[in-house]
Amino acid sequence: MASQDNVSRSPPANAHPMKIALVTGITGQDGSYLTEFLLQKGYQVHGLIRRSSNFNTQRLNHIYVDPHNANKARMKLHYADLSDASSLRRWLDVIKPDEVYNLAAQSHVAVSFEIPDYTADVVATGALRLLEAVRSHNIDNGRSIKYYQAGSSEMFGSTPPPQSETTPFHPRSPYAASKCAAHWYTVNYREAYGLYACNGILFNHESPRRGENFVTRKITRALGRIKVGLQTKLFLGNIQASRDWGFAGDYVEAMWLMLQQEKPDDYVVATEESHTVEEFLEVSFKYVGLNWKDHVEIDKRYFRPTEVDNLKGDASKAKEMLGWKPKVGFEKLVKMMVDEDLELAKREKVLVDAGYMDAKQQP
Ligand code: NDP
Ligand code: GDR
C-alpha cells in the first residue's frame, strides 16, 4: 500500500491550494481518526508507515484509494521509521507538508518496562529526529512547517489531580519519561528556532479502534466474546487505577486546532471526569446484562512496577483558547465500544460454529 509517488499540490478543479499534512503513526488509533478528519477538511494526507512482516493498515483500509486512481487518492502512504532520521528528512523534502503530526510511538506503558531502550529511541529521540528534520527542511527551503507533538497525561504520573499545563511532571515509566523528553525537545525547538511547535497533553482517549491490549478495549473485546459464549474469563491487573477517558474522534480535532492558532502553545485535552477501571467494568458488563465479578480475575502479571493512580485533566485552556470541548462522555464511550465489540464477537462466532476458526483464536 505504501508508494513512492511524487507529490502534487494541485487542488481538485475549483479551490485554493490543498493543504498537505504529514502524519507519523497513521496506522494507529489516532492516526486513522486524524486522517479522516483532515481528509474531510480538504487536506491531502501523507502517512509514514513502518515496515512490518504483516500488513498493519487495517485501521485505514476503509479510506484507502489505489494510487493508480491518483486523482481520487488524497491519502498516500510511504515507508519510514522514527528510528531512521534519513527517511524523515527525505519524505519532508518530497512531500513539503504544511503541517506535521507526530503520533508515532511505542505507546504501551507496561511494554515500555520490557523494552525501555527501544521505547526511548522511538518516543524521545524519534521526536527529536523529526523536529530536527523539520527545522533543517524549513531553513533549506525557506518554509515554515507547523509541528504537533503527541504528549501524554502519563507525564504527570504521580502528581495528584486535577492536572493542567502548569502541573509538574513526575513520570512513572520509561514511556512517560520519554514523552517528557519529547515534550521539552518540542518546547526547546519553539524557543530556540522559532518553530511553530505545539505539545498536546492528551489524557486517555479510546474508541472501537483502540489497540486490544489497552485496558478499555481489552475489557470490551472480552465482554463481547463472553456474551456470545466464546470465552468465560478476563484477567486484569490493577482495577483501582483511575483515568480521564475520552473519545479519540473528539481529540484529533483538538490536535488540528492547536496548529490553526496565531501562536504555538501547549494544551491539556481531557474530559475533566475520572473513573476507575472497576467503574468501566461495572458500566460495560451491566450494559449487556452481566456481572463483571462472575468473569474477572486479578492477575499479578498485569501490575506495573510503578503505577499512575489517578489522572483527571483540567482542560480549561483548550476550552477557552481553542474553543474545543469533548462531545462523547464516559457512558456513551463505553456503550459505543461494547456495541462494536459485540458485533465483532458475533461475526467470530459464525466462523467458529462453521469450523473456520478456533474459539481461542482472534481474527
Ligand atoms: P497506537 O499505539 O495506536 O499507534 C502508534 C503508532 O505509532 C502506530 O501507527 C505504530 O505503527 C507507530 N509506530 C510505532 N513505532 C514506530 C516507529 N518506530 N516508527 C514509526 N512509526 C511507529 O497509539 P495511539 O494512536 O493511541 O496514540 C497516538 C500517539 O498519542 C502516541 O504517540 C501515543 O503515545 C500518544 N498518546 C495516546 C493517548 C491515548 O490515550 N491513545 C493519550 C496520550 C498520548 P504500527 O501500526 O506499525 O505499530
Ligand atoms: P495507560 O492505558 O497506561 O493509561 O496508557 P492502559 O489502558 O494500558 O492502562 C490504564 C490503567 O488500567 C490498568 N490496568 C490494565 N491495563 C492494561 N493495559 N491491561 C490490563 O490487563 C490492566 N489491568 C489494569 C493499568 O495498570 C492502568 O492503570 C494509555 C496509552 O494510550 C498511552 O500511550 C497514553 O499516553 C496514556 O494512555 C495517556
TrEMBL record:
Keywords: Lyase, NADP. Transmembrane segments: none annotated. The keyword Lyase applies. One of its GO terms (biological process) is 'de novo' GDP-L-fucose biosynthetic process. InterPro entries: GDP_Man_deHydtase, NAD(P)-bd_dom, NAD(P)-bd_dom_sf. One of its GO terms (molecular function) is GDP-mannose 4,6-dehydratase activity. Belongs to the NAD(P)-dependent epimerase/dehydratase family. GDP-mannose 4,6-dehydratase subfamily. Catalyzes the conversion of GDP-D-mannose to GDP-4-dehydro-6-deoxy-D-mannose. This is GDP-mannose 4,6-dehydratase.
